[in-house]
Write a structure and sequence with these properties.
The chain is of the alpha+beta class. 27% of the residues lie in helices and 38% in strands.
Length: 132
């Protein structure tokens, strides 16, 4: 299972590390400590929390609403649906939910799964996914 430090989680959520720490202290997102004492968030928990924020949960990141068409949206994979040939991958990047239709082979090659960090690259109406 992929885990993220508070700083990494903050970057994926589009907030400051202090905000992510406050949310963790308040119990809004579950954390655990590694051997070195760092606070970590499990990828699946972070994915669920990012969707909650985007759907109007309190503390939604303050992100500009307009961007150019050639943007990279770093985020977290929140859903992967595999078909026989095609696949659908959803990425939550701050308040933005991006959906990409890919081949099943591409998803398997990238090893994409819920809770994993990924970047959606948008150009016109195409959404490409890069595994981080």
């Amino acid at each position: 299972m992929t885990s993220y430090t508070i700083g990494q989680a903050a970057r994926l959520l589009g907030v400051s590390p202090d905000t992510a720490r406050r949310w963790a202290d308040a119990g809004r997102v579950t954390t655990h400590r590694d051997e070195g004492g760092r606070r970590l968030v499990d990828g699946k928990d972070l994915a669920a929390f990012s969707v909650e924020l985007a759907q109007g949960g309190h503390g939604q990141p303050d992100v500009p609403s307009s961007t150019s068409v050639r943007n990279a949206f770093p985020g977290i994979v929140t859903a992967v649906q595999l078909g026989d040939v095609a696949a659908q991958v959803e990425i939550q990047a701050g308040p933005h939910r991006l959906v990409s239709l890919l081949t099943r082979e591409a998803v398997e090659e990238l090893g994409l799964e819920v809770g994993m960090e990924a970047t959606a690259r948008v150009k016109s109406t195409n959404v490409h996914v890069d595994r981080v």
